[in-house]
Structure formats: structure tokens, C-alpha cells
């Protein structure tokens, strides 16, 4: 199959939530030399965007979203070692989680993969993470960064709740707070008092590096 045909097929099979076919096509694509980023950004992610658009129009319902998400997650498992394969030395620790009330994790998992690839140690707390659980993890792991993901407009206010909980525990100045997720914007991140925001996984790594360097420069000044 030509690359364009394979990518189109991967897009279609993700859209219809055909997990086994998505796995096959992902492996086939890699075997014939298509890069993991190309499979991700030219087929899998656009397909999930279309799933979301169909859901909004009322053409798809939760079960369709669920099976498409599962198919994508299977492909991510195959791509994970390739995306994270850099051998970079550990440059920092990040505690990551999807906020309370929110079960979306594909985007967060992708961010984690990119962080690992860039040399971060990632402590993933999973989904529906309460402010208390974030606080406990920060006390235990003493990360440089804590990352909050939210994918619903209704769960975005948990950023502020988490940041308030950090302040209350006396931890706010000890950790860099990064936020992200489909509906989040730089303006919203600024409004809740986060230190950093990024629109996607690659930008998240770049922003994290910047924030770490700024903090190091301030500490040595
Ligand atoms: Co849901 N869902 N969903 N869903 N879902 C969305 C998010 C939605 C936009 C669909 C739509 O209407 N167009 C919509 C939210 C609307 C809104 O709030 N404005 C929605 C809805 C409404 C819902 C339910 C409420 C539906 C219902 O029950 N009626 C429900 C909520 C459940 C809950 O959480 N309490 C629900 C459920 C689900 C499923 C469980 C079925 C499934 C999730 C499966 C899973 O994650 N394991 C699902 C899915 C698959 C989607 C869509 C179709 C795809 C999400 C996805 O994985 N995208 C989604 C539509 C869409 O996003 N277009 C949708 C691909 C992923 C790679 O992108 O998640 O944006 P993304 O991640 C990016 C960036 O956001 C960024 O980097 C990532 C990688 O590049 N990023 C960060 C993420 N975290 C970051 C952190 C950072 C920095 C960057 O720093 C810390």
C-alpha cells in the first residue's frame, strides 16, 4: 500500500473504531518506513478530531467516541517506545494527571510520552485526579513541574481548585504549574495563575524546558 493510502486507511479505521485494523496499519506503516509522528499527526489525531466534530453534530454518540479512543490508544502503545526513544539524560521530574471529573487521557498520555522522550521522569497519576492526590504526589516525589490536563470546559475550573490547594499546602512556590487540554487557552492559563500552557505535546515539552531554565537562572541569580 502506498503511504498516502495507508494514512487514509488508518484515518478511516480509527474513525470507525476498528482497533485490530488500526494496530495492523500502524505496524505496517512503521514497517514500510512511515515515521511515528506522521502516523500520529497525519492520521490518528485528525481522525479523532473528526470523531469529535461528528459527536458535536450529533452524528456520533459516546460509544463511537469510546471505540475510536480505544483504537487510538492501541496505536499509541505501539508508537510509545519509538516516540520516547532518545536516550536523553533525566532533566527534570513532572507529576501529571487529568483533573477530577475528567476521564480523557489520550492527550495526557501523548504529552507523557513526549516528556519521557525529552528526558523527563514522568509520574502519571492517571485520570480524575483530586487536588489532594496531586498534593500527596508532590510531597512524595518533589517534582520540578506539576501538569494538569482538562478536556472539558466543565472540568477546567479544577485548575484553579488545584492551584488553590497547592497554595493552601504551602507548595505553590516549590513547583512549576503547567496546564493544557483541548479547550484550554493561554488566556485561561493566565487567568487561573498557571506558570505555563501549551497547545500540544511537543509545545508542552518546549515550554517545560523554558520554564525550568528560567527557574534555574533565577535560583543562581
Ligand atoms: Co469526550 N469530549 N466526552 N470522550 N472526547 C471531547 C473532549 C469533546 C471536545 C467532543 C466534542 O464535543 N467535540 C467534548 C468536550 C466539549 C467541551 O467540554 N467543550 C467531549 C464530551 C462532551 C465528552 C462527554 C461529556 C460526553 C458525554 O458523556 N455526553 C464525556 C465526558 C466524560 C468525562 O470525562 N467525565 C466524554 C467521554 C469521552 C470518551 C470516554 C468516550 C472518550 C475518551 C477516551 C480517553 O481519553 N481514554 C472521548 C473522546 C475520545 C473524545 C474526543 C473525540 C477525542 C479526545 C482525544 O483523545 N483527542 C474529543 C474530541 C476532540 O478532542 N476533538 C472529546 C486527541 C488528543 C491527542 O488530543 O486530547 O486535545 P487532546 O490532547 C492534546 C492537547 O490537548 C495537549 O496535548 C495533547 C497531545 O497533543 N495537552 C496538553 C493535553 N494535556 C496537556 C497538558 C499540558 C500541555 C498540553 O501541560 C500540562
List keywords for this structure.
single chain; 221 residues; alpha/beta; Methyltransferase, Methionine Synthase (B12-binding Domains), Chain A, domain 1; Rossmann fold; 2 domains; binds CO-5-methoxybenzimidazolylcobamide
Please, could you describe this protein's structure?
Helix 7 (158-168) links the parallel strand 3 (145-149) and strand 4 (176-180). Helix 1 (3-15) packs antiparallel against helix 2 (19-31), helix 3 runs antiparallel to helix 4 (62-83) and helix 5 (106-117) packs across helix 9. The protein has 9 helices and 5 strands, in the order H-H-H-H-E-H-E-H-E-H-E-H-E-H. A 5-stranded parallel β-sheet has the order 2-1-3-4-5, with helices on both faces. The protein starts with a helix and ends with a helix. The chain has helices at 3-15, 19-31, 36-57, 62-83, 106-117, 131-141, 158-168, 186-192, 201-220, and strands at 92-98, 120-124, 145-149, 176-180, 196-197. The relative contact order is 0.10. The longest helix has 22 residues, at 36-57. The protein has 2 domains: 3-86, Methyltransferase, Methionine Synthase (B12-binding Domains), Chain A, domain 1, CATH 1.10.1240.10; 93-220, Rossmann fold (3-Layer(aba) Sandwich). It is an alpha/beta fold and 221 residues long. It binds CO-5-methoxybenzimidazolylcobamide (B1M). Residues 45, 48-49, 51-52, 55-56, 62, 65-66, 68-69, 101-108, 110-111, 147-149, 151-153, 178-183, 198, 200-201, 204 line the site of CO-5-methoxybenzimidazolylcobamide.
Amino acid at each position: 500500500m502506498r503511504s498516502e493510502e495507508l494514512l487514509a486507511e488508518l484515518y478511516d479505521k480509527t474513525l470507525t473504531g476498528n482497533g485490530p485494523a488500526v494496530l495492523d496499519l500502524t505496524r505496517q506503516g512503521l514497517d514500510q518506513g512511515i515515521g511515528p509522528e506522521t502516523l500520529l499527526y497525519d492520521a490518528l489525531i485528525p481522525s479523532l478530531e473528526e470523531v469529535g466534530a461528528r459527536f458535536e453534530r450529533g452524528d456520533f454518540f459516546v460509544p463511537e467516541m469510546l471505540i475510536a479512543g480505544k483504537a487510538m490508544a492501541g496505536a499509541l502503545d505501539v508508537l510509545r517506545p519509538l516516540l520516547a526513544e532518545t536516550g536523553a539524560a533525566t532533566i527534570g521530574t513532572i507529576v501529571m494527571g487529568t483533573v477530577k471529573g475528567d476521564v480523557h487521557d489520550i492527550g495526557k498520555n501523548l504529552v507523557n510520552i513526549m516528556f519521557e522522550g525529552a528526558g523527563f521522569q514522568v509520574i502519571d497519576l492517571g485520570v480524575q485526579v483530586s487536588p489532594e492526590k496531586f498534593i500527596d504526589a508532590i510531597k512524595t516525589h518533589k517534582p520540578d513541574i506539576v501538569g494538569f490536563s482538562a478536556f472539558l470546559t466543565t472540568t477546567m475550573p479544577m485548575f484553579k481548585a488545584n492551584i488553590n490547594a497547592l497554595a493552601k499546602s504551602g507548595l505553590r512556590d516549590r513547583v512549576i504549574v503547567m496546564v493544557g487540554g483541548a479547550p484550554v487557552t493561554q488566556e485561561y492559563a493566565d487567568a487561573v495563575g498557571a506558570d505555563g500552557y501549551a497547545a500540544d505535546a511537543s509545545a508542552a515539552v518546549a515550554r517545560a524546558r523554558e520554564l525550568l531554565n528560567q527557574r534555574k537562572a533565577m535560583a543562581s541569580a
